Amino acid sequence: MSDxxxxxxxxxxxxxxxxxxxAFIRPGIVIGMMGIVLPLQMRADWFTFSPIEITLxxxxxxxxxxxxxxxxxxxxxxxxxxxxxxxxxxxxxAILLGKVIVTVGYAWIMVIVxxxxxxxxxxxxxxxxxxxxxxxxxxxIYVFILSLLTSLLVANGGVLISLHSPTVRQAQQTLxxxxxxxxxxxxxxxxxMAASLFLVLSNNQxxxxxxxxxxxxxxxxxxxxxxxxxxxxxxxx
Length: 237
Fold this sequence. Notes:
mainly alpha, 79% helix, globular
């Protein structure tokens, strides 16, 4: 456990403070758009979880993880820091999990902050004086879990791609291509099954099914990544 916390601390410092104050510009812009600009434009509709809003929430996770996860292993190779990391006493599992946890946690915290900030902004600017929140509340929890699972999906896939990519640029390009293909396949599949699913299952059951499928894929990809991350092979490469 101490190895994992060491990696989380290292990756957090690299992610948050690399590049100085400029590292906070990009997340600040996204939080400002998602937590202030869009809620003020949509007003009451922001609390009803329209498909556009849910898509935007998921896009935050995809956007940031696509930018950072390709650097997980390929970036260490390019900077010649992977050898130093592998020469330490930190276990292979802790190295990989630390990178995934920090990247996913960063994106997920941004989603939570954006949603809560949006609710605060709308209530503060509401002239009626009555306070409102996301309805139903259970759907807010679902959106948070959905964001977490999609973040894990991209992060686990990104780590696998980064493991087998010589450069960060190639890793990011491959990840973007795989994401597009996966999105098209999922979209076509859902479109084909939507009618039959709604006839057999309730909305809550469909939501739980989606979360269960994502959780299963996440577990499989993480297992493959842990099995692929071998110190002896990486040192030789």
